[in-house]
Write a structure and sequence with these properties.
The structure holds 2 protein chains of 2 kinds. Chain A is mostly helical. Chain A has 9 helices and 2 strands; from the N terminus they run αβαβααααααα. Chain B has a 4-stranded parallel β-sheet with strand order 2-1-3-4, with helices on both faces. Classes of the chains: A mainly alpha, B alpha/beta.
Chain lengths: 233, 139
């Protein structure tokens, strides 16, 4: 719902059924004056940090209204970091430390894990819901739409689709769980993201969602910023 | 497993590893014939997408070979490779494919023998691992 100054809020919803930062990204180029206020859960805040870090939005133009997630929302996302830096609405919830599916999958042998994921990814009908709803999916041209990497026709698209997405999200996924919620096939995508996030932490000690840290994939081994030899974000 | 001949893709960078492979050939070093060499300008131009596509289409192993750190023709290209290939390995591990199927190594233009060693060892490792489980999977 969009409101401007002086309008009646009516019965505004604060349960946030969409990824608001994705909505904001679509809106941002069209609102050229003034400031934009946006309800920010902790994950939205982290998504904004990732976007601002890449110079896609001006931090000064955005007013964040801190929104604490409810217990149900936290449980749904298996969220380990649910409290925004400033809480204006709602009550602080407790984080959930463990993703049970992830724990289960990591205990399985690799054959069984592959069997699980193949069965899950066979449900994919390549609707691109996961990319469209994703707040940190902001390439100008999407490689997943190129037939070089993903077969142009036919569903399911194969594993390369999901592997490429997992890699692209590895240094920016803020675990909002929107991909999983909007997936018509109910693929546990958030669990896959959480597995990659854990690997990123183990390998490079990097956690997305902080405006100050640069993605390790964009720096040299001495942690200096790579020069613009290829155009990647 | 007898009779299993793995198909292996080796991305070799133009400036070091491809020349290294050339040297190995010119020196008539013996090595298994399972490797298909793909010449790329830099190991950093091996996008993770290439590796994922190869693996998901049933290639048994992917070798990424580049210049030694500090010797890159493009100064920091292989830094990028060094950072992203471990993530690629983790991604396929999380999916349930053995991460040893993707291997990153540095081979310079003078290291024909190292090229032979890397290829031979990698082929032996893949022979032990068996065929790519995705080879028979139809989507």
């Amino acid at each position: 719902m969009l409101v401007s100054r002086g309008e009646d809020l009516g019965d505004i919803r604060i349960d946030v059924p969409y990824q608001l930062i994705t909505v904001l990204s679509g809106l941002y180029p069209w609102v050229t004056e003034g400031k934009i206020a946006v309800l920010c859960r902790r994950c939205d805040e982290k998504a904004l940090a990732e976007i601002i870090k890449r110079g896609l939005m001006d931090e000064k133009r955005i007013v964040k209204i801190g929104l604490a997630c409810t217990k149900e929302q936290i449980a749904e996302c298996r969220c380990a970091d649910p409290v925004p830096s400033e809480v204006h609405i709602g009550e602080q919830g407790r984080p959930v430390e463990k993703d049970e599916l992830m724990e289960k999958l990591l205990k399985l042998s690799s054959e069984e894990r592959l069997k699980f994921w193949v069965a899950q990814f066979r449900k994919c009908n390549k609707c691109f819901g996961c990319t469209i709803s994703c707040p940190v999916c902001f390439c100008d041209e999407c490689v997943l739409e190129e037939r070089t990497f993903v077969a142009e026709q036919g569903i399911p698209p194969g594993l390369s689709f999901h592997l490429i997405r997992a890699f692209h999200m590895s240094d920016k996924c803020i675990e909002c769980g929107e991909c999983e919620r909007c997936c018509p096939g109910d693929i546990p995508l958030l669990t896959f993201r959480k597995m990659m996030a854990r690997d990123m932490k183990d390998l490079h000690g990097f956690v997305p969602g902080d405006a100050k840290t640069i993605s390790p994939l964009l720096t040299t081994l001495e942690d200096e910023l790579l020069e613009g030899e290829c155009d990647e974000r | 497993m007898t009779g299993f001949n793995p198909t292996i893709l080796a991305f070799c960078c133009n400036w070091c590893s491809y020349a290294g492979a050339d040297l190995a050939g010119v020196s008539r070093l013996q090595m298994p014939p399972n490797v298909h060499v793909v010449r790329v300008m830099c190991s950093a131009s091996v996008k993770p997408e290439y590796v994922f596509k190869a693996i998901s289409q049933g290639i048994d192993g992917v070798l990424v070979l580049g210049c030694h750190i500090g010797d890159c023709h493009y100064m920091t290209g292989n830094h990028r490779t060094a950072k992203r290939i471990p993530v690629v390995r983790k991604a396929i591990h999380d999916l349930g494919i053995d991460e040893r199927r993707v291997h990153l190594d540095w081979v310079s233009a003078a290291e024909g023998e190292k090229f032979q060693k890397v290829v031979t060892e990698f082929v032996n490792d893949i022979k032990k691992l068996g065929p790519n489980p995705l080879r028979g999977v139809r989507f």
